[in-house]
Design a protein that fits this description.
It is built from 4 helices and no strands. It is mainly alpha-helical and 149 residues long. This is MYO5B protein. Keywords: Coiled coil. It comes from Atrichornis clamosus.
């Protein structure tokens, strides 16, 4: 059993190493392509006048910044989409909490002995969500059971 475990770990490490190596090779290929492009651009502008060289450099920088802005815009759109999705989920969960609280008030008093210690105040904020739950040590098993169900 120990030998098989060691073999499995060795195979996992080998697989991870191969994946890392492949990723690094791809990264090197991308960098080599970029270097070739820069060398070709340099060879093209070398015989040009200094003014044209500056203008070409500015064009290159404008292109780079434009591409960077497009990437950032795409990232922003993804973040906004994720934010909308999370807000929808929050509304659903808040509705479930309200339904749960409503169902708890319909139970007889003897069936809900720890209700006072289990009440949770839900506050809505547009940003900066934080969640903390205070409980008594003796209520921990009940809390865990309720979280699971």
């Amino acid at each position: 059993p120990v030998l098989r475990l060691l073999e499995a770990q060795l195979q996992d490490q080998r697989r991870e190493h191969e994946e890392e190596t492949e990723a690094l090779k791809n990264q090197v290929d991308v960098m080599q392509e970029e270097l070739e492009k820069q060398q070709q651009a340099f060879l093209q502008i070398l015989p040009l006048s200094p003014e044209v060289q500056v203008e070409f450099g500015l064009q290159q920088e404008i292109t780079r910044l434009t591409n960077e802005n497009l990437d950032l815009k795409e990232l922003l759109e993804k973040s906004e989409k994720n934010e909308r999705k999370l807000k929808k989920q929050l509304k659903i969960y808040m509705k479930k909490v309200q339904d749960f609280e409503a169902s708890q008030t319909t139970l007889p008093a003897e069936r809900r002995p720890h209700e006072r210690s289990m009440q949770v105040a839900v506050q809505r904020k547009e940003k900066d969500f934080q969640g903390m739950l205070e409980y008594h040590k003796e209520d921990e098993p009940l809390l865990i059971r309720n979280l699971i169900t």
